Amino acid sequence: MTAIQLLACAGMITGAFLVLGLKPMEFTDSLFAFLLQPRRSIREELKASTDRKTGILQREIHEVQDVLEMTGREKRFSIVCAASLILFCAGGSAAILLGNFFLAPVMATGLMFLPFWYIKLTASHYKRDVSAELETALSIITTAYLRTEDIVTAAEENVTYLNPPVSRVFQSFLMQVQLVDPDVDAALRAMRCRIDNEVFREWCDALCGCLHDRSLKSTLTPIVSKLSDMRNVNADLEYMVAEPRKEFLLMVIFVIGNIPLMYLLNQDWYAVLMHTVLGQMILSITAAVIFISAGCVVKLMRPIEYRR
Fold this sequence. Notes:
By secondary structure, this protein is mainly alpha-helical. The chain contains 14 helices and no strands. The chain folds into two domains: about 1-110, no CATH class; about 125-230. The radius of gyration is 26 Å and the shape is elongated.
């Protein structure tokens, strides 16, 4: 009966979309835009402007928007929002089909964050790849600059050996200097904002200083070596985190796998767990702990970055 009611509800929602002529992407965009900027009174606006704390959902959405913008995938934000909304409905529906109404909000909320966590994990790999490419690019360009004492010549000689997205940044720098404005200092200051990396920004600032004082070029090599140090630190961190991450995944599999195993070993225990109020509350608390722990694991898997 519950399944029939859920199917009827899904049919009603689909019919409402068809009657009103709404597209799923437009609906999700409007919904998440409302969550990001809800209508508030002037007093609430002033309080929000002075209080830096934001909701968990708003913080996750803002982080995902930053990640997609950083990786050049801004157009996929609607897809991420749609996937989040679909998983929200799927999690709540699955819990209702199991007859556990305590589990419904936990499953719906936990599954809703899965697309956001996935995007954040891809951002970690993206930052590691960019940092590795920056290490190579800045090393060879710095070596060429120490030889020629001309950053335009050094970049022009080596830009063909670089890989995206670092190569696009230096190509834009060369185009601005050679075709738009010959002011190298302005081009360097514009280039420093195109990659979200503190070492790269420090390197650009040092180059701006070298334009006025060539004796400062000795500071470039130690700046580039910071990328090597960060790579070594992140490698050690990945080695340290790998084992706890593996243990967490195994524990989650064991906890979830115990439910069907309990059905095979002792159906009375399974009935108590699935069909009594106490058992349903225990399942809900267990699911909440799993999702909260998963969020903490995703947060700890971020690479270490240099900050001045």
